[in-house]
Write a structure and sequence with these properties.
The protein is built from 9 helices and 12 strands.
Length: 285
């Protein structure tokens, strides 16, 4: 694939746009699943993982033990095991089977539900309660999807982020996802800021790789789940994607339902989706 850097993504897309095809092609996202999430409150609420600590111990103290190594920003990540005979066995990063097509909108809802996390003019007991609630949201997220900022936490690419950073990034993405559904909001995302890229281009170039896709479309490869969300936002803006609730959406009548929406067009171009996943479809039978 040839990655483009000389033109803004919106300019590249609009130059090739055809009403009979999708202009945005989002490529598969691969990651190394972390294990043992915890938030270190003694250091300001930094998100960490036991498997990350194991990686650091093995790399620094026991360099002959299994280590994760990267082969480049857009390359797959391989796990290299070294035995006594110096023979290598490689295990590739796994393709995410859990990410949703409404993740950018879902994180916005979670931020709205947990806005007390950012409130400071309340009793300490309330702050602690809100922090614990948001901590649990992030814990469950990482168990399903992995780390939001790094595809492989067992590498030198890992970015240490606080719960505050997660909240702030989710808020930014949520606001952009909302803008992507209105003409005024789309204009805000696409228009270049004086002396800088547009909001959309800035985030796509920071968190994704961009190249020419099939049938003159633009392909976007997310390097983390931040990039995945911005790729979805780009699709909403440039392909006019809209959303409705999954038919198994949670309600008073369906308390065990999901919390996801489905797009007007799937990544493969199929229409008239009813369910966000096979699990939700099976649950309604």
């Amino acid at each position: 694939m040839v990655f483009l850097v000389e033109k803004p993504v919106s300019e590249v897309v609009f130059a090739r746009y055809n009403d009979h095809m999708s202009s945005i092609n989002i490529l598969k996202y691969e990651y190394v699943p972390p294990e043992g999430y915890f938030a270190s409150w003694t250091t300001g609420g930094y998100v960490f993982y036991n498997s990350r600590l194991d990686y650091l111990r093995n790399r620094v103290i026991q360099p002959d033990k299994p280590q994760l190594q990267t082969t480049g920003r857009f390359q797959r990540v391989a796990v290299v095991f070294k035995d006594e005979n110096e023979s290598n066995n490689e295990a590739e990063a796994v393709e995410s089977g859990f990410y949703q097509l409404d993740m950018h909108r879902w994180v916005a809802r979670k931020v709205a539900e947990n806005n007390a996390f950012k409130v400071t003019n309340v009793p300490l007991a309330e702050i602690a309660k809100a922090s614990k609630a948001f901590d649990q949201v992030i814990r469950e997220f990482t168990e399903k999807y992995g780390d939001f900022f790094t595809a492989n936490v067992h590498s030198d690419l890992f970015e240490e982020k606080r719960l505050d950073d997660w909240y702030d990034q989710w808020k930014i993405i949520g606001d952009a996802a909302s803008d992507a559904q209105t003409e005024k909001g789309k204009k805000r995302l696409k228009e270049p800021i004086p002396g800088e890229k547009s909001i959309l281009n800035e985030n796509l170039f920071r968190y994704t790789g961009i190249g020419r896709g099939p049938q003159r479309s633009t392909s976007i490869r997310p390097i983390n789940l931040v990039g995945w969300c911005w790729a979805l936002i780009a699709r909403d803006v440039l392909d006019g994607i809209t959303y409705k609730r999954c038919e198994n959406y949670m309600s008073d009548q369906n308390p065990t339902g999901c919390e996801h929406e489905i797009p007007s067009e799937a990544l493969d171009g199929s229409l008239n989706m009813k369910f966000c996943s096979a699990e939700c479809e099976a649950a309604t039978r």
